[in-house]
Amino acid sequence: MALSVDSCWHRWQWRIGDGPLQSPSETTPLLSPEKEKRSYNLTRQRVVFPNNNIFHQDWAKVSRRYSGNRICTTKYTLLTFLPRNLAEQFHRWANLYFLFLVILNWMPTMEVFHREITMLPLAIVLTIIMVKDGVEDFKRYCFDREINRSHTQIYERKEQSYVQKRWKDVHVGDFIQMRCNEIIPADILLLFSSDPGGICHLETANLDGETNLKQRRVVKGFSQQEVQFEPERFHNTIVCEKPNNHLNKFKGYMEHPDQTRTGFGSESLLLRGCTIRNTEVAVGIVIYAGHETKAMLNNSGPRYKRSKIERRMNTDVFFCIGLLLLMCLIGAVGHSLWNGTFREHPPFDVPDAKGSFPPLALGGFYMFLTMIILLQVLIPISLYVSIELVKLGQVFLLHNDLDLYDEDTDLSIQCRALNITEDLGQIQYIFSDKTGTLTENKMVFRRCTIVGGEYSHQENAKRLEVPKELDSDSEEWTQYQCLSFPARWAQGPASMRSQGGAQPLRRCQSARVPIQSHSRQRSVGRWENAQSSVAFSSSIEKDVTPDKNLLAKVQDAALWLETLPNSRPAKPSLSATPYIADFFLALTICNSVMVSTTTEPRQRVTMPPPTKALGTSLEKIQQLFQKLKFPSLSQSFSSTAPSDTDLGESLGTTMPTMDSEERDDVSVCSGGYSTDTDGGYRSSTGDQSDVLASGSRASSEEVLEEPALGLASPELCYEAESPDEAALVHAARAYSFTLVSRTPEQVTVRLPQGTCLTFDVLCTLGFDSVRKRMSVVVRHPLTGEIIVYTKGADSVIMDLLEDPACMTDTDVEKKVRKIRARTQKHLDLYARDGLRTLCIAKKVISEGDFRRWASFRHEAEASLEHREELLMETAQHLENQLTLLGATGIEDRLQEGVPDTIAALREAGIQLWVLTGDKQETAVNIAYSCRLLDQTDTVYSINTENQETCESILNCALEEVKQFHGPQKPDRKLFGSRPPSETPPLASGAAVPEVGLVIDGKTLNAIFQGKLEKKFLELTRYCRSVLCCRCTPLQKSMMVKLVRDKLSVMTLSIGDGANDVSMIQAADIGIGISGQEGMQAVMSSDFAISRFRHLKKLLLVHGHWCYSRLARMVVYYFYKNVCYVNLLFWYQFFCGFSGSTMIDYWQMIFFNLFFTSLPPLVFGILDKDISAETLLALPELYKSGQDSECYNLLTFWVSMMDAFYQSLICFFIPYLTYKDSDIDVFTFGTPINTIALATILLHQAMEMKTWTIIHGLVLIGSFLMYFVVSLVYNATCVTCNSPTNPYRVMQVQLSDPTFYLVCFLTPVAALLPRYFVLSLQGTCGKSLISKAQKLDKLPTDKRDLKIQSWRSRQMPAPVPGEAQHTHRPVPPVPEQDFRASTPKSSGPPKQKCKENRGKHGERSSRDHRRDEPCSADSSAQLSPGDRFLLGPSSGLASGAYPSGQTDKCQRSSRGSHRRSQSSLTI
Fold first, then answer.
1. How are beta strands 716-719 and 911-915 bridged, if at all?
2. Is 1197 helix (H, G, I), strand (E, B) or coil?
3. Which element (helix H / strand E) includes 594?
4. 3-state secondary structure (DSSP) of residue 888
5. Which of 499, 599, 1172, 1450 fits as disulfide partner to 1369, beta carbons 3.0 to 4.6 Å?
6. Which helix (H) or strand (E) is 1464 found in, with range?
7. Which residues pair with 790 in a beta bridge?
8. Is 80 exceeded by the pLDDT of residue 360?
9. In 713-757, where does DSSP find H-type helix?
10. Is pTM beyond 0.70 here?
């Protein structure tokens, strides 16, 4: 509803006036130029007036519309607790069922038990749950009260100063003053920061778990305040969006008195729960308060899911209801028939008040309802409570498993969903992210290419291969580090480097106020103490060993930069030197890295350190190097530093160049490694450089400049928002392009020769998942040019490059085409090597163009409607016609134990899919590294956008796969043998090749839009692994839902980032990894672990145990209740179906509540059918849970039949024993009750696989408790159940020998069939579980030998000649020849498939691939946009390289996926 501002806002209307509003800019159409009257859609916008003297009246009236800052997360109050809790509990239909029975029993005509007795079970269950809910809610109330009473500084209008008030007193429009280490009480718009650049640093660990600092900026126009912020001078009105839960999205504008607008976004919003860091004072105005803050709107709490066992159990409960109705119907019919045999009403048939008797039909109906009350225990009400208690016990054991504890992060497993633990034992499909889940998310700079020249960084690769040896540096080198930087000594031993990396830096301590719901758990403190305070700064990430050949060119580029003002080229240069300089400047500048020092951790450096004369300390440093035994370096020192010219000449004469094509080709085709072996250059501390090349005539200035500067300034630390940024900055620093300071307006870079360049930052376009790139606009300090530096994904940057055809100079055009083609070749090489690739580009724009663009950008930022679209449009106007500088390859190392975990999960019968947004080649290489794909697999790669092409490809792939596997995948067996129809039609001795599938996001779109899901899923059922690359978060969730719903399987998703949240929530079980990408995945997950390897024990051991325990406990509960209720049912045949019982009512109540309740709980929590060691050694045992062997329809009905049999024995043996005797009804019922208890407890003992003292004490204690309670009850109950009372019945029975004989023989007869079946299964059983249970009984050494023998029998026999074929490179397939080189195939595919492939075949989707050498041979009919590769060449056609280089490149690519049994390329 759109409302105009009413009269209460008269002051605001007076400021605007009656005239039409003028547009802030007459040159832009982004905003409407005029409006007759200012109005707001209050359902879509929020208007905030400041709480000062000028706007106080408006603020007072408007603030009532908005929520206060007091939070209340409790569900109940004292008045609403009882009714609301009961209403919630009666949402469970089982409770309603028992309430219905209680009401029936209150009717006199249908009363079976005493009314109070009928209410007792339901009342106890409701009371237990009510107490539990009340305690939990009271804890929440105490937590809320503590938060609401926290203090903060609020501006008081009357006193015109800041006063201390409680958080609950904060309102929208208040001015809040915060200091360092203070937690933000509400969502606040930043108006002032003590930082000169208007920057406020936040730590968002309480919100999303990320430990690295975030920067927030003061709203434009408020950053240049020299003095303290004065709220009384704030005369603006704020208009922003309504409250929402998007943590990273916020838009609005500030209306000034002169009717102009200033836009702001999430970069100026301080979120509730975050902590102020590195900022002395920050002042802002409250925008959202209390439950309208983004943090509170994101508080969803633990999620509730229904487990598979619970769904199965609900079905079986309906079976029990049907059984109950059948028994009640029999009772009603029997009652009518029995009464019909009397000619006169029997004396026990009591008439109503009028003296009349109800008709037989109505009497039968009354008896039907009476029987429902009598047999109500058939529906196990206590089962629901028992399941909840068992799951709590299972969660407790999970939390206390040391194998699931990670020492590095000091975190153990977190169980956020308490009701699906048993689903961990039934998983069939796992969907995993790659980065941060399979890999460490520790980005290490690996290699780079600049203007077509590839630099392999061989020494850096060697360093990464032996990280442990590198981390333990020599004592002399450590001494050199300490002497070079005396500032380190002042910090004490805690800050000294050990094992090649910095010790954890403790952030400044502060008294923290706990934040409800959006604060982390108690593990936060442990995390902070264990983690380094500077994110992404481990030794392996910081230390980069430069490439010697590139180092020489970098020095030349640095010298070229200094001469730039005097020698500006008139036309574009063909030399690589300018590109190298811009490449490293882009690495240093194009980021959001914050600079700090080790002496002042997390304190931002804003001023560059003064450059120092280098010659004064040369003698001291020379002596130092002599002590450290570096003769080759110390001999090169001289007492005076050479000039820059001499330095350049020295470099030019000593360092080889690498600008030729031959050099590049050799580098690429030899695996990317240089053939030089005469040493390398290492920046082992990340803050200095030293040339260790023996024999080189390096000048003293080159060698000593960084150590000399280090004497004057402490070590720099880089605080990055992503590991990629940190890796690139550390790489640039290794080449002495050092980022020394950063402010919002300026960034300073120190060049190798010590010169500092300060660039004016004109605009920053941050990275987002849509654009997949980041840009920084700076003014060059030497040339005055406005330069745009851009970095981003290669698939995006390559499409934004300037078209070479538009260039006038032919030589330049050829050079650019050549650079682009070679860079693409290097990118593909990096991807095949498993590296993450980023492209670096630049663009020079004129002053006029930038001013026009900045005007559009300003208006887009000030727009409230369609702000994101306008900002995206302005970014696209700037980021085009780019000049390619080069690309980088960053290695993301595999987590420890990932290959073993994946191999074990596959042996367990779990299908593992990887859904990632990375490049296809990178994902495939990682898949080989972690054993997701094997070298002998046949890999199908499908890349197409066309739906018809996709359908044709799927048909052909299915046809080819079915040649090996037959019409269906033989993944299930029927009674231990495979059906004949599922046997693969292969010749004897031939092995079935494993199949892998690689697919990209564009193909997924074609599948979903073309309704090809069924064919796609049919193909995936033949695949051991599926890789989906370039996937969006939406596609990830759609893929999980597709498999879960269409295949009706149990799914698990695991990820670590915000882009995995939708996938995690879509699966049956979602697991978050608390990694380097924050805690958003953890907060939306059901379980949280710290390492992927923990998944192995979590599923194979705890998953199996939880499922086995709970499944068998549920079956036991059904058996127990049916067996006991049937005793009452059989008695009805001997009491005229009158609804009477032979067991005392209280005894029946105690039977379920006390005598038989504790053993199932112990059984469900502690029982272990197989040991953890055996489960880990034999992962195939997990398949029993996948097939639901412990609890399915068969086991349920077998238990029901067993319960009927045992109830017959337990009833009729005592009946025949006491037949024709004169015992009373309770004397007859007491042996039956005792026999039933003994039989049920012994049945439980037979089900237990583990025996401990607890198991024995619980079973014996339950049996003894029965006698103790019965004796006491029978001794005291004189007239408690008139006219029949159980007084001294148990005492009399215990003195009768017949009682002991019956109680001994009857359970034996009842349990004999079950004991016989269990013995037969243990002796002759062929199931994996029974075999594993036999292994567990053996001694450890014999068990290990048996397990080894078992595993050796499971290993597939090698096929002769297969290994030789596997490692032979696949020859190039001419694109005109659609033949499949498939050795195992019985023949080529049908001609129809060939024709379809020829018709719909398409090649590379990227425009920049048209310059590849193979493009000339491509078919003219192929439309750009798609490619289809059957076989492992998932990213490149065989013609991507010249034919002479193909084999070399394939051999040189370590872990390359060009290894397969099949290769078909179109």
1. unpaired
2. helix
3. strand 594-597
4. strand
5. 1450
6. strand 1464-1465
7. 775, 841
8. no
9. 723-734
10. no
